[in-house]
Amino acid sequence: MVSAGWSLGRHVLPETSLLLAGVSGGLLLRRVLSALGAESGPARAALDAASLSVGELPAGLSVAGDGRTADDVVIRIQDGSSPATVWTAAARYTAAQTRLLLDDIEKMVGPYRRAVAAGGWTQMASVRAAKAAVIDAMSFSPVVQRALPGRFAGRVRP
Length: 158
Known about the structure:
Layout: E1 7-10, E2 17-20, H1 25-35, H2 41-51, E3 62-65, E4 73-76, H3 83-109, E5 115-117, H4 125-134, E6 138-140
């Protein structure tokens, strides 16, 4: 667990342990939004809405990166790519990374009963759809986290 960067400790509930792990999807999503010129609220909302109508991604389109171990975000495009498909690829990639993390956690502690996603990115319907497509028993916290001053939060109210 330590080599994977996870933390294990006491939970606030009696006789319960807490395993804390995560992926750096927010960093990747922020960088992709910036590359697409969609940092403003209206531009993010338009991209979020357009992403919901994307089905299969164009051949050759991929988005990858891991802010925990490298600073690079790699976007590969071919004909047929658009800002909506690139954003969709990014949201699906981060959701797939979360799914892989859950698979690894299940090897250590057994299957989970439910998964709850929280944070500014989950206010985007495209991010929620990507996560729900790959994670069973997925729910989303209704709490909207406030942005830190001077920082991009990726927050779009539904």
